[in-house]
Amino acid sequence: MVNVNRTPIIGGNWKMHHTRALARELLSSLRAALEEFNQIDVVICPPAPWLGDAIDTLESSSILVGVQNVHSASEGAFTGEQSAAMLVGSVDYVIVGHSERRLMFGETDRQVNEKLRSVIDAGLEPILAIGESQDERESGETENVLRRQLFTGFDSIKMLPTGMVIAYEPVWAIGTGMSASPEMVQMAAVTVRNLVAERFDEITANSIRIQYGGSVNSTNASEFAEQPDIDGALVGGASLNADDFSAICEIFAHGR
Ligand code: 13P
Question: What residue owns the CA closest to ligand 1's atom 7?
Fold first, then answer.
């Protein structure tokens, strides 16, 4: 489903990396490199303690700020957590359902659904992360896994925000240096669009933006950018380097 109207979006998921000094340095370098980069959407998701620095440093630039996780409740006695409602006015994007949260912190599809609903209700932009494990791919379960993650993830949701972002991140490609092939990701992206069309409608399926995540770097990014259904990348390791990350943004800005 080629749709040139989908604005590519590159996310930098810093995960739990960098001291404050390094984070500030990286933010300043990113601002210098991408300050007026309006061709595509760029969103930086730093660790929560550096959120204030990110908001201050990137203020009135074209770079958006996101967070890596939220609690599904709007407030309450949940030590150590943050809600989507609290982030309104400070950040634009929220990653929901990252595989590291699913696998290391036991997040279920049901909890991902509750978080996704809280982000949509708060009026923030979700980045819903989905993807199969190596075993699931090898046993031919990829489509079933994506179906389960999406259909449970979308439970009770009547409409998706326009241009909502879904990050397809096969677990085996994350942080391994072993990216999926562009053709494999293109096929998965078509599967995701078909599932969204089945659950919602064709217009929604054609408008959602699908990122690929998993060992994306400035060398392999162009192969993904050339695929008609891949609308950007969610970048982990390479987002910790301003030159690499900016190069990936440039590639997606000129990739279609
Ligand atoms: P890497 O780019 O380090 O493989 O991480 C991908 C990822 O998990 C982004 O959310």
Answer: 236
pLDDT value of position 256: 58
Contact 171, 133 (CB under 8 A): yes
**CATH number for the domain whose boundaries are 9-254:** 3.20.20.70
Over 60: is that where the pLDDT of 1 sits? no
List the one residue out of 123, 128, 119 whose CA is nearest residue 149: 128
Classify the phi-psi angles of 32: left when phi > 0, otherwise alpha if psi is within -120 to 50, otherwise beta.
alpha
pLDDT at 3: 55
Instruction: Measure 76 CA to ligand 1 centroid, in angstroms.
Output: 31
Among candidate residues 18, 71, 98, 114, the one labeled active-site is 98
Query: In sequence order, what are the residues at sequence separation of 6 or more whose Cβ sits closer than 8 angstroms to the Cβ of residue 116?
Result: 96, 97, 126, 128, 153, 154, 157
Mean pLDDT for the stretch of residues 151-172: 97
Distance 253 CA to ligand 1 centre (A): 20
Query: Ligand 1: residues within 6 Å at CB?
Result: 13, 98, 169, 174-175, 213-216, 234-238
Domains of the chain, by residue range, sit at: 9-254
Q: Which residues pair with 166 in a beta bridge?
A: 128, 210
pTM over 0.85: yes
